[in-house]
Amino acid sequence: MSNIIASNIFLSENENRTLMALLELIIPADIDRGMPSAADLDFVRYLEEFASKEIPAIKNELEILNNTAEEETGNPFFKLGNEEQREFCNQQRETNRRFVRTILVQTLNCYYQDDKVLTALGRKSGAPFPEGNEVLQGDLTLLDPVRKRGNIYRKWE
Amino acid sequence: MADDIVDVLIIGAGASSAAAAWSLSDTRMRILCLEQGDWMNPADYPSTKKNWQVLRDNEYNQSPNIRCRDTDYPINEDESDISVANFNGVGGGTILYSGHFPRLKPSDFKTKSLDGVGADWPIDYRTLESYFAQNDRNMGVSGLPGDPAGPYHESPLPPVPIGKMGEVMGKGLNKLGWHWWPSDAAIITENYEGREKCINLGPCNFGCAQGAKSSVDISYWPINQRLGVELKTRCRVREITVNKNGMATGAIYFDENGVEKFQRAEVVIMACNGVGTPRLLLNSKSTQFPNGLANHSGLVGKNLMFHPWGFVEGFFNEPLESDLGPMGSCMLSQEFYETDPKLDFVRGYTLQITRGKSPVTIALQHTLKGDIPWGLEHHKNFERYMGRSVNINVVCEDLPEESNMVSLDPELTDSHGIPAPKINYHVSENSNRMMQHGVKSAIQALEASGAFQVNPYGRTRDTGWHLLGTARMGNNPDNSVVNKWGRSHDVKNLFIIDGSIFVTSGAVNPTTTIQALALYVADQMKKNLANLFD
Predict the structure, then answer these.
(1) How many structural domains does chain B have?
(2) What InterPro entries does this protein map onto (chain A) (predicted)?
């Protein structure tokens, strides 16, 4: 959220490499749109601050990811090349609807609440209060045909 | 404490309670309200926090079974097609409501006479008209006069902005020749009565940090307290007590420390809405009332009505900034509100047109569904959905059926050991046919407005916001629980003022009608003080 260096106290080095590779695959940067990669944000700090109860599930998914990759390719996920990682994830997603589901959900939660991301989307960063937002009033002359038609409710006297 | 008698004891501090207490305060009677929840602190609401988008998941969840605050009670919903949404605290359900504030219509009070279904109310729209207006002033309601789908009325404040999305939808509905109108909203669009106007924070339905949404902890209660009404929080009532003459004598409750206490009262008013009120009455068994208090008709808890609720979502090519603005209050179409004999259902529905979703929700929904891929294409596809969605809620009238009910669960209890409510509820065939038509109409409206993608989700379970009918009013004690001014047929000093006294549900959000009814009942009490218990 705050784009500072992660404390990263709950992930091993290999788990961290796995996670960063996965984040990069889920949401890479788009320079033209000014959008950072999910791996550029401080996902670990986000988890610690806002979603700590998900950490065990995330560690479990990372372990499964590495074990499955090792069974199928002979290497844990973090040791695969970028293209191999992408292909592996695509295969897994086709056969397992819940593949890295917790990591995916938390990545999207983190990414779309990040200040840089919201600003690039044209939205105000941070909490909505107290600044608020402007909303166009809208053209109420569009109601003229509705008025012209007259009352449509059933009367009861 | 047992000698500390009050004139009027109100159970619950939500929408109806606040209105009735305000009205009764000018009698100079001693009025005490017991509320099981806390005062809310607007500084704690999600929109004051960076991670506001995900805070609805738990702490501000609409379901007490998920939210699980210590002030909540559990509800057994295993045998219900719709799950209950509520909030327990000063403000009640208005803490989490969207402030969508349409009134019931004249035909809603006479469904039996007009359409041969449901039952007629013992009162009509005209009876409540002045109370609607009074409540609009007290709450702070915004709206545009002249809606041809209901009797003419003016709101104290101008309407909430319809925004670009409102213009797009309005043009589409005009193509179809259908009714639409900006919603009446319990949201102040200008500074009003010491409160600051709406600044479009967005998520009204998890508390308004600005205080612009007219939840009754903001609108009514501060005034009520200045007028001398007493309010005690964290007081969970277990039972309404009666004497040998069958008159209510007060309430047994657990205070904030869990200590059981008794509060004596001359008059008891129930204001716990359509699940809480029957739960408490059914828990108040005595020799005179072995089946629960005020239940000689056997109808306490029966005739539960929600509004079967469906969703259809559309996405548009142009940016609409639809994620900004009061989420639940934009506009509505009541083209199909009244019975049309050409259709295969009786009564009708509202199309409540609400704003789009937050960035996180859009990302989650469409990434998990596969519309937004992983990888480089993620951003381009996210843009297609973000700020470009419009939701149409299909709000179906629910008709009363005795088999739909609130009873007491034989095992489940709250943290004080008080039996919890159990819901038995099934959506009727009429409602299902109405919903099918409503979903088709919503699709038609979105397509006419230019949506490139329409997702019809249909009826959804987690939509039990409106809890109605479980202690209904009527002239005949055999088929109703309270009379036409809210007094129990059986217990002459017991009144009910919340959604449970609805006879039929209409097809609109009920809070404005609940409050108009509460003001009306309070007014009848004042007018009949001399012979209130006759």
Answers:
(1) 1
(2) Gluconate_2DH_su3 (IPR027056)
